[in-house]
Design a protein that fits this description.
homodimer; mainly beta; six-stranded antiparallel β-sheet; DUF1989 domain-containing protein (chains A, B); DUF1989 (chains A, B)
Chain lengths: ~200, ~200
């Protein structure tokens, strides 16, 4: 049972993003208000931006590609950045990079301008002093990536239903970036918003 | 049929590493001389060290966690860094970070000093101006990581037999670091050397 209360709510419009400070002990709730939407999360240590969320360290220590309630998300220096307190969906991706302008060119053959999680993170994290090259593989909340025995990936519709959420407790003072995903394939071709709440 | 000839050979002693320049078009052959050994590879663009090998971009564009002959290893900026020309083993890992002092503490419960691929990369890449925080998930050549349907990872003995190799062609001028892995689990509890050849 949660005794936390809400400090701040943000509504992330479709194909956009946001960034904010998160103090140690505060809880980030990422909500899929309509269902079947993906939200890319990235985080940096507030007082030393060279410490960053690491997919490789997290997957290695959790010994699974599917982290869920009770798992810790680690930094590149092997320090805990988040603990997953509650996960109502149970399927998130930590293998793939945020969709970028190049993603749409290389995977989709689409050379028209296209919004992307990467650029939404870049633009929202820039005021905090974070350079584009410092954004590695994101924690792709609600993204449903299945690995076949031969290694091939299948990206399915997210398993999230309207209103379901994941809660992550910050284990250090952080700068965090969060998106409402811009890629057709990851959200079943329906662009939707994401809601976040900061709780304590 | 290969018409390349060898420019340089290096023998990487057990639980150690090396680093070197690799010019565009040159071929890096990584050989497992005794079989069942792992070699972590990391690479940076020579004239802009902020461009670095990216597991997330590579896996995304290849649409598989098991890259092999014909696949391209991409940078964080979605530029090709290597093309795999020949792969005699067909099983490599691109999910896990190089073993580090913290790996042995967190996974193995071992608080004694222990050699690690991460520190071997750090020490060998430092003379090229590469900081520890700039080393992300490595391409773990010959490492045999299997993902179960529930996401759980199993690290098995490498499938490499004595003398088998992988060849990667550099697609830009690079600084590369290569190790002979220091972790018990990844090489069936037998520490062995790795041989590399630079060919053109």
């Amino acid at each position: 049972m949660t005794h936390s209360h809400t400090l701040e709510c943000r509504h992330i419009e479709r194909q956009s993003g946001t960034a904010f400070r998160l103090k140690r002990g505060q809880i980030l709730r990422v909500i899929d208000p309509m269902g079947e939407q993906v939200s890319d999360l990235m985080a940096f240590r507030e007082d030393d931006l060279d410490e960053v969320l690491s997919s490789g360290r997290t997957i290695d220590y959790a010994n699974t590609i599917y982290v869920t309630t009770g798992h810790i998300l680690y930094s590149n220096r092997s320090n805990p950045m988040f603990t997953i307190l509650e996960d109502q969906v149970g399927r998130h991706d930590f293998l793939l990079t945020p969709c970028s302008p190049e993603t749409f060119q290389i995977i989709y053959g689409n050379h028209e301008p296209h919004p992307s999680c990467f650029m939404n993170l870049v633009n929202n994290l820039a005021p905090f002093g974070i350079a584009p090259d410092r954004i590695p593989t994101t924690f792709n909340i609600f993204m449903n990536v299945v690995v076949a025995p031969d290694g091939e990936l299948t990206i399915g519709p997210p398993l999230s239903k309207a209103g379901q959420f994941i809660e992550l407790r910050a284990e250090m003072d952080l700068i965090a970036g969060v998106t409402a995903c811009s890629a057709e394939m990851s959200n079943n071709h329906s662009f939707k918003p994401i809601d976040i709440e900061i709780r304590e």
